[in-house]
Design brief:
Blueprint (H helix, E strand, L loop, with lengths): L9 E3 L79 H7 L5 E5 L5 E12 L2 E8 L10 E2 L2 E2 L8 E5 L3 E3 L43 E2 L2 E2 L6 H11 L7 H4 L10 H19 L1 E2 L1 H14 L12 H12 L6 E2 L5 E2 L2 E2 L13 H12 L9 E5 L2 E2 L3 E2 L9 E3 L20 E3 H4 L8 E2 L1 H8 L7 E3 L4 H9 L6 E11 L2 E7 L8 E11 L5 E9 L2 H5 L1 H9 L8 H8 L1 E7 L1 H4 L3
Parallel strand pairs: 10-11, 14-15
Antiparallel strand pairs: 1-3, 2-3, 2-8, 3-4, 4-7, 5-6, 9-25, 12-13, 15-26, 16-17, 18-22, 19-20, 19-21, 22-23, 22-26, 23-24, 24-25
Length: 574
Amino acid sequence: MQHNSPNERIKSLNLLAHLAPERRRNKPTVSTSAPLTVGQNSGQKSKMVQEPKKIGTCILVDVRSDDTPSEEVYDTPALGSPRAVAPTSTSPLQLQEEIGVGSLVEVATDVDQHYYGVVRWIGIVDDTATAGVELEQNVSGLGDGSKGGTRLFTCAPGRALFVPLPLCRRDARFRDTPPPDRADLHETNDFEQPDCPVVPGVVPPLSSLGELAGKNRGIQGHHNSCYLDATLFAMFTFTSVFDALLYRPPEAEDSPHYSEVQRVLREEVVNPLRRHGYVRADRVMKLRTLLERLSDVPGLTSEEKDPEEFLNGLVAQILRAEPFLKLSSGQEAYCYQLFVEKDEHVSLPTVQQLLEQSFATSGVKLSEVPAAFIIQMPRFGKQYKLYQRVLPSPLLDVTDLIEGLPRQCTVCGSLARWECGECSRGAALEAGALCAACLRLTHAARPNHQATPLTVCEEFENILESCPIPRVYMELFAVLCIETSHYVAFVKAGVGHDAPWCFFDSMADRKGERNGYNIPEIVCIESLGAWLSEEGGRAPAAAPAARQLPAHARRLLADGYMCFYRSPDVAMYR
């Protein structure tokens, strides 16, 4: 490792991370201001630092490591000298409290060029409070987060910008008021966005669409966040099936940062979404930054990701939620990936058909009825799809997928005692459920079929012999779709067969070009319920070309990536 020159000192500005006075002389030359990750010592005492000296306009400090090649990315004016923000009464220490690691900031230069990015590191360089910013766009001449041979943070080459901290200010695109230097211009309203206050306490999910539809509604997308925006909107806007994630008390095995991640998710994302119908991008970036630091999923703040990667980082690793699915094989999971062989005779399969085929192939069952069932479609990557179109089943019959659940004989309707996998091959799983009498009749001509006994609870055995066998259904409430690496969501606005559906896109429109911001939008789709019905499903099957379908129906059927099902009755006890 290369050592810093004697006249260059870099130390953390994070007060909580400072060592006790007697340990300061043994402190490493470089320490980041990011929160401690799991397993690190969080018992260090904080020590106040001296107020940084005032910095005038100056040339940007050297930001490229010695081994980073120069690369021209696009035609752009040369970096100018950063110019200070409008004078305010804010002290540098107050500024440090307002702008921290994970903040969305902008840096203005003396050539009227604005640079936008995320603060990745804050520290002292040559007695100057300095911010390391990962820019949204590559700029020729910038590095990858190293300075003087020491790595302070990691980003793509050409995006690491180090500037004095007082020269950074909150990104005007995500502020409640226009930038100070535009207050007297006619385009002031171009940078105004809805307010997004923190909402503490308990806020129930919305029960109807109401006035939620429109522009600047939902979760604002920013910097490849669509995978997260669509997933959060589907999970929390109109349903409480995942609300245990918001309120579970911390346990001894949890991360030291569990409460903070949970608070940001609840009070800065979910509650504002439910109460005000809008979440600004900087609130979501705070959650993304925490997840990137604390989980083993890299790139959550800047790269394209898939919903299952986000769920793994948030739900499995940080929040340590109980897995939604428990299989008879002893395995547990949060999502279920469909693995099936393509049937060339089927042009428009339903999720019900594919799910039963997948379970029959794997030979496993669910150990219990799940409160939430997240099913990934049979597609691999963003391009390859096993079927060009898949019809989401509005009601998912899971009766034959649950181990130990009473089942009905497919022949006579009485209580089934046996199950034959060969009888159900190529048909619905219920075709393999047989009572003892029907088993003898059907297998008389099928000597190669092997049936296995079904387990029936003795307490209900006599009752079920004389009563109709109940079926267990789960309700579809959201579908995530992807097209050309962009995720959107179709979400049911309420509970019940007649509840309307809406379409959500966190980046539906944009204000400005390179330095603009995205505008999220929610659209009411009144006809979606009809398209999902059995009668409506016949129309796309008969349509010779996808372009003949309505735009939203075409997108729902052709771009489906993940279906969300719920069992409200089971969720009450979880």
